């Protein structure tokens, strides 16, 4: 039952926005639930916890109550978003041309566990985002030059927040991964400072910030060509349990 203080809608994730096969890209679904919480406001960061993979092409329940938004499939909690008062640290700016050159070292070109991923997968131009972050020589950073497709716009001609969250997501994992390695996104905290426009050229930069058991930590940022910060994030990834 929906009360006067609760908003509830039905959400279905199109297969285009997949990460691992059969599940939504973690950043995209985190950004989608964040938008349900914040709308068009970007006055604070949002922390999104992914409790379980989000299925594709399935009717899901998206609820916004007070300062929390949740996504559920039946009784199963999939995603939860809350507003947080936190200033996010960001990796240093890398100029677009330098970021684009770094793509040649992208580990996913040698071995990619999820080649169909919307954000970092090896999909055709205009279909996926094709963000391929590779090492920046002389730094602890990885970076990619993001050429924003014209095929991902809102009605107002700008890029939805969910797309920006997707761009922030995968690089925080690739800051750790060697070819063929993978983990699953567990939590993403992000804040968008400025809009992203289709056809634009942006730098996406990330760095690894630590490891604790099966948890991997990273930070990422999107920058305009002049170094203006567009968006920032920090992430926690969970590596698979070892068999045996």
Q: Can you walk me through this structure?
A:
With 244 residues, the protein is an alpha+beta fold. The protein folds into two domains: 6-84, Thiol Ester Dehydrase, Chain A (Roll), CATH 3.10.129; 96-180 and 189-238, Thiol Ester Dehydrase, Chain A. The chain is 14% helix and 33% strand. It is built from three helices and eleven strands, in the order βαββββαββαββββ. It has helices at 26-38, 96-102, 161-174; strands spanning 6-11, 45-50, 60-65, 68-73, 76-84, 134-135, 142-147, 184-192, 201-212, 215-223, 229-238. It has an eleven-stranded antiparallel sheet. Strand 9 (201-212) and strand 10 form a beta hairpin. Helix 1 (26-38) crosses helix 3. The longest helix has 14 residues, at 161-174. It is globular and about 50 Å long. The N and C termini lie far apart (45 Å). It comes from Streptosporangium oxazolinicum. InterPro entries: HotDog_dom_sf. This is Thioesterase family protein.
């Amino acid at each position: 039952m929906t009360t006067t203080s609760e908003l509830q809608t039905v959400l279905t994730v199109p297969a285009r926005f997949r990460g691992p096969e059969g599940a939504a890209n973690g950043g995209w679904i985190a950004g989608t639930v964040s938008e349900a919480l914040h709308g068009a406001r970007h006055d604070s960061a949002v922390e999104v916890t992914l409790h379980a993979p989000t299925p594709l092409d399935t009717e899901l329940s998206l609820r916004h109550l007070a300062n929390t938004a949740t996504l559920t499939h039946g009784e199963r909690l999939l995603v939860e978003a809350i507003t947080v008062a936190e200033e996010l640290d960001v990796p240093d700016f890398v100029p677009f041309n330098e970021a684009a050159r770094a793509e040649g070292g992208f580990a996913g070109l040698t071995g990619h566990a999820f080649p169909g991923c919307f954000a970092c997968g090896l999909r055709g131009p205009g279909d996926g985002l094709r963000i391929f972050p590779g090492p920046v020589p002389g730094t602890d950073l990885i970076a990619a030059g993001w050429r924003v497709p014209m095929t991902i716009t809102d009605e107002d001609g700008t890029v939805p927040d969910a797309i920006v969250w997707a761009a922030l997501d995968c690089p925080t994992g690739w800051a750790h991964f060697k070819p063929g390695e993978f983990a699953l996104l567990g939590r993403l905290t992000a804040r968008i400072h400025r809009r992203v426009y289709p056809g634009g050229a942006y730098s996406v930069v990330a760095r690894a910030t630590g490891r604790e058991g099966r948890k991997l930590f990273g930070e990422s940022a999107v920058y305009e060509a002049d170094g203006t910060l567009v968006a920032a994030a920090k992430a926690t990834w969970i590596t698979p349990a070892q068999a045996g």
